[in-house]
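Board notes, transcribed. Complex of a protein with zinc ion.
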Amino acid sequence: MHCSPLLRVISLVSTYAAIAAAQDPAQLMQSPEIKAALEAAKRNEAHFIDEQVRICEIPAPPFKEQVRAEEMARLFKQLGLDNVRIDKAGNVIGTRPGAAARPNLVMSAHLDTVFPEGTDVKVKREGTLLKGPGIGDDCRGLVTMLGVIRALKEANLKTQGTITFVADTGEEGLGDLRGTKNLFNDSLKGQIDKFISIDGTGLSVTNVGVGSYRYRVTFKGPGGHSFGAFGMANPIQAMGRAIAKIDAFEVPTNPKTTFNVGRVGGGTSVNAIPFEGWMEVDMRSSDKNSLEAVNTKFKAAVQEAVQEENRRWNNRGPVTVSPELVGLRPAGSTPPDSAIIQTTIAASKIFGFDGRLREGSTDSNVPMNLDIPAVTIGGGGMGTGAHSLNEAFDTKDSYLGTQRALVLAVSLAR
Ligand SMILES: [Zn+2]
């Protein structure tokens, strides 16, 4: 075919545009395979809402996610994932190979809830409303992931890179992100190029991971009679000195950095010098350097407080202290102008995202701290009352969350 010079230029431009478009979620929407997958996601939504209820009624208290994990492993196998396994931290892992092994995108949601064993996890349905502890956080994330897997399968869509799906353990509270830490440090070490956590509801996008240090600090001394043994260092008074020092910390407001002495206890009687006092302290920041700085100040304050108390009483006692780290959630963030966040924003806008980036403490904290591209997204629908017994999830148009996750997964698995 003859091409005039002008037409040749146009055809070069359109070839370039086609290549560029392949990276862009909005253009990806024109692909027949994606259209088929999006239709499948919408068609299957009612089924996965039933699954959301069923999975949520399998209790998954902190450190006891195993029964729910086994059910997720069964579903991963049924949906055709390869090499479905449960790692030593209890994470359920399954692979959907792409044309190439890399990049390997991990898409995850968490198995655990904040609710203790024995909590009534029966879900009540009222119209589009589902009510039950954990129904949004994170049973929604788990089924959004299942909806993505099934839609990709039904559309027979081959991604360029590989997607590894994970239902992980220990996201909440003292679980301390142990599942995700194990993924990055052990079971998938060196094999994760990008990471999406689906946590909670709506079309939210979280690019900042608020980190925290949590301590239980125990002060000890011999103790004695308040009158008869007067003149010896006092563990609770040493703790009082430490609390006064912590209270005087100057911390940045941006990035927001916080500290809190949340619980105290100790002593046996008003007329006894205590042999023990303890406190629980929480410090947080979205910035890893600020978090390290406040942690360093905290450790120094505790030691100085004990030294001052012992000097005050001429080392009669004396008091000793042992700060025990009971929680560590690493801090980090993915820059708004990074490829993964720009792609997430573009994919989300198609489905009605408001454009606001959020801060949070989720499984993405771990990769963000390691500078591995990571983002946390909501699973669609609308949630209220997370972490309370009144938790509810409105399924109205929740398929949009599944579709957004699908477009994002295909966009990033390349
Ligand atoms: Zn969650």
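The pocket of zinc ion is lined by residues 110, 137-138, 171, 199-200 (CB under 6 Å). Residues 1-22 have pLDDT under 50 and may be disordered.
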